[in-house]
Amino acid sequence: MSAVPGYRPDIPFLNHTSALDSAGSPLHDAGVSTVIPGLYYVGLSNQRSFASATIRGVGSDANYVIKKITRFLR
Known about the structure:
single chain; 74 residues; mainly alpha; 1 helix; flat
């Protein structure tokens, strides 16, 4: 995941887990962690679209992640 200049996820609390790659970027598929069940992300650059890290794009990604969380909790 390449970050937009000036923007980087600040998730040091995940450093001790397998949730991040060697560069500290979340390992995910469209906001769903690929390594830790029940871990989700929103607002990441290019999460599901070019606009994912913007106010305009995060809503769509959040709706997608909410559906995934709901399925996970069932």
